[in-house]
Specification:
mainly alpha; about 70% helix
Length: about 220
């Protein structure tokens, strides 16, 4: 069961499904479609930033077990929330059920990654929350929109077809990030200097204070 939800969160299936969803929305409203792509791109950029910072600079929060935002969880939550909600809306069914179903699919995707030790619980939860925010940022506008003569059967068939063809494939995004993170590190001296100052400041703030019972010029003979 875990591998099912792991595959449902992979970019190899979620991104094509998201594009099909955008194409159907653009059929009625191009601005809404752009809003969906923009929200998803922003979520992916945030996930990618944490992965680059960790792979290139080693930036993490080991005390909390956080290294990177779970991209599978973010994509699974946001994409399936939007796709299922839109389908229910076009079939004249309560769209809130789609929000709940998409959130649940995303949560199960995250749990599968925690169980196989791909991510920690904080990483999964951050991806789940981010995915829900991405999905709701789009659905807030789309749920208020009335689509003229929607074609739910055609949209459902296209999504099922793409999902079937893409299911089980793995997108090489993580490999690309790991292969290029060190190169980005070397080409960003200003960023390196900034992180160096942050680390130095952190060391200063966490350093123990000097003893107060010793005079500033050494002990008195």
């Amino acid at each position: 069961m875990g591998i099912l939800f792991t595959n449902l969160g992979d970019a190899a299936i979620t991104l094509p499904v998201a594009l099909i969803c955008a194409a159907w929305v653009a059929w009625f409203d191009v601005r809404l479609a752009c809003r969906w792509i923009s929200a998803l791109a922003a979520g992916m950029a945030l996930v990618g930033a944490t992965k680059i910072l960790y792979a290139g600079w080693g930036i993490s929060f080991p005390a909390s077990g956080f290294r990177v935002i779970s991209g599978h969880t973010m994509l699974s939550t946001s994409v399936w929330m939007v796709v299922i909600t839109l389908q229910l809306k076009w079939w004249r069914q309560p769209p809130l059920l789609g929000v709940v179903a998409g959130t649940l699919v995303g949560l199960l995707t995250g749990i599968s990654h925690v169980r196989d030790h791909s991510h920690t619980l904080p990483e999964m939860l951050s991806g789940w929350v981010l995915g829900a925010l991405v999905g709701m940022a789009f659905l807030r506008a789309v749920l208020k929109t009335e689509f003229e003569h929607p074609r739910p059967s055609w949209s459902a068939i296209s999504i099922l077809l793409v999902s079937t063809l893409a299911y089980g494939h793995k997108a090489p995004i993580q490999n690309v990030i790991e292969a290029n993170a060190q190169g980005i590190h070397r080409r960003a001296p200003s960023v390196n200097a900034l992180f160096g100052r942050i680390r130095s400041l952190g060391s200063t703030l966490t350093a123990p204070p000097p003893p107060t019972d010793v005079p500033p010029h050494g002990p008195v003979p």
